[in-house]
Known about the structure:
By secondary structure, the chain is an alpha/beta fold. The protein has helices spanning 33-44, 60-64, 85-97, 174-178, 194-202, 221-226, and strands at residues 2-6, 27-28, 31-32, 48-53, 73-78, 102-106, 109-111, 126-131, 142-144, 150-151, 157-166, 206-211, 215-217. A hairpin with a 5-residue loop joins strand 9 (142-144) and strand 10 (150-151).
Amino acid sequence: MKALIFAAGKGERMRPLTETTPKPLLPVRGKPLVEWHLEKLAALGVDEVVINTSWLAGAFPPALGDGARWGLRLHYSCEGPEPLETGGGMLHALPLLGDAPFIAVNGDIFCGYDFARLPREPAGEAHLVLVDNPVHHPEGDFALLPGGQVQAAGEARLTFAGIGVYRPTLFDGWRSTIGAAAGAELDPPRFRLAPLLRAAMRAGRVTGEHFRGEWTDVGTPERLAALG
Length: 228
């Protein structure tokens, strides 16, 4: 199984820390954020990991190398000077990810989730990990139904943890799904993943689970400092 780590963002809310260091390379408890993910993926048996890069892209190869120290093969999906957002970034990385389901993880989260819980074959187009809503995001993202289906709307919405398993077929007909969204006309296209997920949810093709353990969206210097 392969995996994708999102690491292309500019980390604007983390400045000045991210003026010289990409957010996924900021240290948490003795090592860069992204290394926590690499270790978990290697322990799971993942052998190839794609890291998408844009902001300070040149900092990643010297810091992470080719992945050999974790028993991994790292590939870098360079997006150019402007990040392609989550949807565009995943689409851009698909040639490196292949045709099988793959794991995707946000490079700027810190959590205690055990990646071994993820299904190798999602029942639909995607399987998402959801967490309790943090203070800075009280409205949540998606609703988890009792049977494990995930819907865009619902009374008790949870927050997407930035961890999931996806089928490349999620992108079938993506242009018609996102319509005239800004950035879709660019080459390579720039767009968010959420519209594709919502379309799959309407078709009953997204499952999920509720993780109640430690999880932090490391979006500000204060949240980074709170991790110790």
